[in-house]
Design brief:
It contains 20 helices and 4 strands. With 464 residues, the protein is mostly helical. The radius of gyration is 24 Å and the shape is globular.
Length: 464
């Protein structure tokens, strides 16, 4: 709800008589002649404890649901179904390619979607059905179809959760809340990986997929504990205008895409993911060559260990972002990647390589928080918050997919150390671009509505 008022001299236009002043803030004003036009925007009331705790639960549970059965599908198809590597690769690639193609249009769809809770619950149910389809599908076509559906549905979760979070807490609380979301998400990743691994080891491999399906049911229950009336549709898509339901007040796609800061940001994060995606697979390949018996254990420790590091890093990033700014915090994440690439070349010891991989927790933990905050800043008032999230996810996905192919070619021609140094060089370019060309995106604080003295000081008559 917006109210337009005028200030002439020391006279301030009235807001609704039954409203408390602390319920309003001043949005940037403008002069028209000697008249100062001030826009009052109603401040959203704080979210309830029920909604905030439900957000925690959904982010924790969603970690396992969103990643789905992908990490364990290859093992199941090879060991239980006796599929050949080619068929497994096609099934896994089908879901990945479908998700990559769907990310940007899904983000645009989330922007227009009002019933985000319901859609999130439906998507979770589809992922649960997909997990069961892995067990009961009898043909190759059925398996590929299930993976395509899961790949497309999986792209809905990140923008929907970020959009709902923005709609619940607003921009004032987004820094801390996104950090908390990512903290619970990474903790859920650790829990899901350990639980699925133990279930697959102690019981049959099929128990992993039953576990995922059961987790989907619990997640759906948690989703509906988020109160629908506390999700502001305008804020959830990055708008600040009163007439957000009217698409005429939403920026066009071209207007968003020509933003120079957004272009620099996308280029930086694409190079970041290009350098980062192949590092862990290369570590696994190097371990399997020199230490085949320890390779699987070390890889498990690398994955779980990095996720454990991401938990406090994400929480800290959310707390530092308001004080340090997005750029300063993100530079730490960018800087960790080239250092990690160089350190890989110093020793081939499994324990050493596992320890170096923990640095991935710093870069990835910061990236998960800062990317959402920067996109929120860059799309402020455009109504294209979730569309840009999908666009960035598509771009980084392309960069990550090319990374493994290029790194594999370098390893074949020049060895692992050269490949690590090449990836570290690309990461350094990403760091340099972000450090020199990317501006700080966090805006200055708005004036408080109760500070009428400042409003009067802006008036030309008061300065006379």
């Amino acid at each position: 709800m917006h109210y337009h008022h005028r200030v002439r001299g020391d006279r301030l236009g009235a807001i609704p008589a039954n409203a408390a002043l602390e319920q309003y803030r001043v949005v940037p004003a403008h002069y028209r002649g000697r008249l100062l036009h001030v826009q009052f925007q109603q401040v959203k009331t704080a979210a309830s404890k029920q909604t905030l705790r439900a957000l925690d639960a959904v982010n924790f549970l969603m970690a396992d649901v969103h990643t789905g059965v992908g990490p364990f599908l290859a093992i199941y198809l090879a060991a239980s179904r006796h599929w050949n590597p080619r068929a497994i690769g096609v099934a896994l690639s089908a879901g990945g390619i479908a998700g990559l193609i769907a990310q940007t249009p899904v983000g645009a769809f989330v922007d227009r979607l009002r019933q985000k809770r319901v859609a999130l619950a439906v998507g979770t149910a589809l992922l649960g059905i997909g997990a069961l389809a892995v067990i009961y599908s009898q043909s190759f076509a059925d398996m590929v179809g299930a993976q395509i559906v899961m790949g497309v549905v999986g792209t809905f979760f990140p923008p929907a959760m970020a959009g709902m979070t923005l709609g619940i807490v607003g921009r004032a609380g987004l820094d801390w809340r996104i950090g908390r979301n990512e903290t619970f998400n990474h903790a859920g990743n650790v829990f899901g990986a350990v639980a699925a691994g133990l279930l697959g080891y102690i019981f049959a491999r099929e128990s992993i997929f039953y576990f995922t399906a059961a987790n989907c049911v619990i997640t759906i229950v948690a989703i509906f504990f988020i109160r629908a009336d506390e999700i502001d549709f305008a804020w959830a898509r990055g708008c600040e205008k009163g007439e957000v339901a009217n698409e005429q007040n939403v920026s066009g796609f071209r207007e968003v895409l020509i933003n120079r800061s957004l272009s620099i940001f996308i280029l930086s994060v694409v190079l970041f993911h290009f350098a980062n995606a192949a590092m862990l697979p290369l570590v696994g390949q190097e371990l399997s060559v020199g230490h085949p018996r320890a390779a699987s254990l070390c890889m498990a420790v690398c994955i779980v260990g990095a996720q454990l590091v991401m938990v406090p890093v994400a929480l800290m990033a959310g707390r530092l972002a308001p004080e340090w700014g997005r750029r300063a915090v993100f530079l730490i994440g960018f800087a960790a990647l080239p250092i990690r690439g160089v350190l890989y070349t110093l020793s081939g010891n499994p324990i050493y390589l596992t320890g170096v991989q923990l640095l991935d927790g710093i870069g990835a933990g910061i990236f998960g928080v800062m990317s959402v905050l920067i996109i929120s800043d860059l799309t402020r008032g455009t109504g294209r918050f979730n569309f840009v999230q999908g666009l960035v996810a598509t771009a980084t996905g392309l960069g990550a997919s090319l990374s493994n192919s290029v790194a594999g070619f370098i390893v074949q021609r020049a060895g692992y150390n050269v490949a690590f140094l090449a990836l570290a060089g690309i990461a350094s370019i990403a760091l340099a671009i972000f450090a020199t060309a990317m501006p700080e995106t966090k805006r200055r604080r708005h004036y408080a509505v109760s500070d009428f003295a400042r409003l009067r000081a802006l008036s030309p008559s008061s300065a006379a």
